[in-house]
Amino acid sequence: QDVTATIGGFFPTLLDFGDVMVQTAGEQEHFHFRNVPNPEAYKEEIMLLVKKAVADHGHENQQF
After folding, report:
1. Among the listed residues 51, 21, 23, 52, the one whose alpha carbon sits nearest the alpha carbon of residue 39
2. Which helix (H) or strand (E) element contains residue 54?
3. What is the pLDDT of residue 8?
């Protein structure tokens, strides 16, 4: 799994808007959220949720 946040351009940088891309090994391989506010915060939250799910279920390769 991989989570990436990107911000491109003057106004998106100024206003802190960007894209969040999530790649998984699951049935749906990727998700792309466009023009979200504070994309870095979304990225961090997704990563924390994945870590919690892995800790709760015992291993990283389990399908959720």
Report:
1. 21
2. helix 39-57
3. 95
